[in-house]
Amino acid sequence: MLAEDSVLLREGLIQILGRFGHETVAVADAPALVAAVADDRPDVVVTDVRMPPGYRDEGLRAALELRRAHPGLPVLVLSQYVEQSYAADLLQTGGGVGYLLKDRVGDVAEFLDGLERVAGGGTVIDPEVVRRLLSGRDGSRLGRLTDRERQVLELMAEGRSNSAIARRLVISEAAVVKHVGSILMKLDLPPAPDDHRRVLAVLTYLRG
Q1: In angstroms, rounded to a whole number, what is the distance separating the alpha carbons of residues 12 and 46?
Q2: Which is higher by pLDDT, 133 or 40?
Q3: What's the pLDDT at 35?
Q4: Mean of the pLDDT values across residues 156-171?
């Protein structure tokens, strides 16, 4: 399910997704998105933030509404804007969410990879979204982290696995495991299944 008011971008995304075997239903405003999802439960929702009728944050608020009405529905926000007040709220709804910036998607494969990870229950966040959400904020718990631990946490926010983080930072996977353990300890996260603790760490990182 694609919610995008720009005709050219909407049609372009439909063509791209169709080329890779995805069937797309498209709408042009937030109320239509909510109604369409109720009628035809999609595998994943891709939505812009600023859409009709008000061109403010209708798309993101619709995404939150859909996550509450349909728990577990995968939602990927694809926008030019970072709406700080609602982005962290969306991420707090659990796995199967993402927030990517249109201008920073480097290629089609990168976009499709993020979409598929969200559809599979992962969390995908553009590092620039993370930086903007943290702008001017540095909670006391986050202040405990080293520079390297912040780098690891940023990649965790992107939904990267330990092996992917190791490749990106050119360190061993064992070193990543050690850093992740230190991050969870310094953020005072309670014992829980590993995946859930990683999500909690990312949310703590974003909320500051």
Answers
A1: 14
A2: 40
A3: 95
A4: 87
